[in-house]
Amino acid sequence: MRTDSRLSRMLHVLLHMARDQQPKTSQQIATMLSTNAAVVRRTMGGLRRAGYVQSEKGHGGGWRIACDLNQVSLYDIYQAVGTEKIFTIGFDHSHPDCLVERVVNDAIGEALSDAERRLIKRLQSVSLGDLAQQFSRRYPT
Amino acid sequence: MRTDSRLSRMLHVLLHMARDQQPKTSQQIATMLSTNAAVVRRTMGGLRRAGYVQSEKGHGGGWRIACDLNQVSLYDIYQAVGTEKIFTIGFDHSHPDCLVERVVNDAIGEALSDAERRLIKRLQSVSLGDLAQQFSRRYPT
DNA sequence: CGTAGATGTATCAATGTAGGTTACGTGAGT
DNA sequence: ACTCACGTAACCTACATTGATACATCTACG
After folding, report:
1. B59: closest CA of chain A, how far (Å)
2. CB B91 within 8 A of CB B109
3. Which of B27, B65, B70, B93 could link B129 by a cystine bridge, Cβ 3.0 to 4.6 Å?
4. SS3 state of residue B70
5. Contact B89 A134 (CB under 8 A)
6. Could you give the C-alpha distances from A22 to A39, A114, A136, in angstroms and in order?
7. Count of A–B CB contacts within 8 Å?
């Protein structure tokens, strides 16, 4: 199954933007991500609607960070990009009133929910500021 | 994104098979799952290679359980069906030597690994026998 | 102003994967 | 022999993400 790399991409972009306060155009970001400008606008639109970045049109326009990196977690970004499914594992619903199916799906569902809660907790515990700090520590200039 | 319902399907089938020791043909199972026989053979082939079921050709042939339900966990079945990716979340690898990308992917990777370990642990803690027992408890005949 | 630069968005194509479908080979039982 | 059933390959279909193109709209600059 194809994976959704939007979270990874957006974090990548945000950290680069944080290190260089100049506004960046969609095209510049697209080049950075080896994709094209429309994809960047589409994906970053989620971050804009959530208020984590701002965009401006016209000369000298582009994207800028509009939040305190220490106040925004990886989970916030995850939600802003709008990923709807986390797991590739799904349920069989061929016979919704089959009681066996219900027991099976409940068991799988509980395991998935548990893992999902864990993932969310982990993503919530790391802020963009933490990542920026990790970068500075691991790769001092 | 389309989900992989093979685990759910296989558990569904196994529990039905456990309740009726008669061998079942691929076509019977396909009808049970609202799919077709080739898909059943393809998916159950994994369980056969792992030794959890046996198949026999010819008259009176079909699929039978070949394991102790109490010794096989949901995780065993999960592995037998051969799911390779658990999460829809992936990594951006547009610039493998970008240090920012590395920090970001490490952070996401740790969160995912943690959640995956949790999921595996949960799936390992439930046996097919447990599910069969849950069924009997929840829906006594 | 008019023009160039930028986003916002709609639309279509490419791509990858699970599942569906068909077909045929092979072995087992009658 | 014939039928039943699995084993497997090949190809198609459905669907979601991403890529690509186009165009409207807004903004700054000369």
Report:
1. 28
2. yes
3. B70
4. helix
5. no
6. 21, 42, 19
7. 180
Across the interface, do B103 and A15 touch by the CB < 8 Å criterion?
yes
Which positions on chain D have an atom < 7 Å from some protein CB?
3-10, 14-22, 25-29
Residue B42 is encoded by which pair of tokens? 């393809």
> Which residue from B36, B30, B37, B38 is spatially nearest to B12, judged by alpha carbons?
B30
Tens of each residue's pLDDT in chain B, 141 residues: 678 899 999 999 999 999 888 999 999 999 999 999 999 999 999 999 999 999 999 999 999 999 999 999 999 999 999 887 889 998 888 888 889 999 999 999 999 999 999 999 999 999 999 999 999 998 887
Measured in angstroms, what separates residue B131's CA from nucleotide D2's C1'? 42
Mutation to test the B interface, candidates A35, A69, A83, A88, most B Cβ within 10 Å? A88
- Asked whether residue B97's C-beta has any atom of DNA/RNA strand C within 7 A, the reply is no
Cβ separation B115–A110 shorter than 8 A: no
Domains of chain B: 6-138 (1.10.10.10)
Question: How many CA atoms lie within 13 Å of A7's alpha carbon, on the beta-carbon side?
Answer: 30
Question: What's the pLDDT tens digit per position in A70-116?
Answer: 999 999 999 999 887 899 999 998 888 899 999 999 999 999 999 99
Q: Are B30 and B40 in contact (CB under 8 A)?
A: yes
